[in-house]
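W.,

You were right to be curious about this one. When I first looked at the sequence I had no strong expectations either way, so I just let the prediction run and decided to look at it fresh. Below is the sequence, 340 residues in total, followed by the output.
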Amino acid sequence: MRLFITGTAGFIGFHLARRLLGEGHVVTGYDGMTDYYDPRLKRARTAILARMPGFIPVTGMLEDGDALRRAVEASAPDVVIHLAAQAGVRHSIDNPGAYIASNLVGSWNLLDICRQVRPRHLMLASTSSVYGANAKVPFAETDRSDEPMSLYAATKKAMEAMAHSQAHIHGLPTTAFRFFTVYGPWGRPDMALFRFADAILKGAPIDLYGEGRMQRDFTYIDDLIEAVVRLIPLVPVTPADPAAAAETGVSPVAPFRVVNIGSGRPIGLLDFVAAIEAAVGRKAATRLLPMQPGDVPRTYCAPDLLQRLTGYLPETPIAEGVRQFVDWFRTEYRAAVEGA
């Protein structure tokens, strides 16, 4: 296959591109290389991909519609996977304009280009944050998601809505996946695992918001990539029978579906910290703080649709996934960044 993937210098995009390149596919990677976090880490990821046959890197911003169009058209993709975004719940409070530009304007640019280029399957990364204030857990794809608690979540929900309208009007087969707290080697420095491991190794205290009582559906990166790869050939088709829509997760009026990707097993924040302590071999000094604006006390998914469609569920135990990250952080991270 020929694939066009946005965000290949990012955490998830890097892992997905590496998996697909390893299987012999051709991947055009489009990334803005922004400085939201250390761009040396992005350059290190890209350097690894550049050594693999079939990788075509393109540097550009989603907001630059002309550059994005040229890259997509040159790629002539069978599949487009949109992973690039301005991420982070808390950063959206301080820098809302970046989220409007990337997640709304940039995503619309790609949707409009795909309307004309017509890939077999358009796939979009959304987030568990769209469930917002919904008190019902576990979160199912059919649950309400119209009470976002952050601008980040609002922009991702808006992207889903725009994609559904394009799928309905133009018959563009589209899958949006909602990721649940992805972690693992090559992860982002602003994420909890990275910050906690770094602080514990340095003997610095870590801040636990929500007094440490929060729960998350932690999804190891390899499990998430396996789920995405299995979804690639499962192109949504508008069902003739509305009853079939519930079984397949496809909208009754468009070739569009939303799929949760998570294990369905919530892990308490204190248990997560304990797994990091075990992997590092050192106890953490902790500070218990109130919940931050825009955050929610617990997120975990009902993964039934993912299992029904793919026969697969994320399965890596938290202790193993955290150990893999800590091993990478201790042995590869510093050298990778300094050499980038």
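Here's what jumped out at me. The two ends are 29 Å apart (CA to CA). And, maybe more interesting for your project: The longest strand covers residues 121-127.

Coffee later to discuss?

I.
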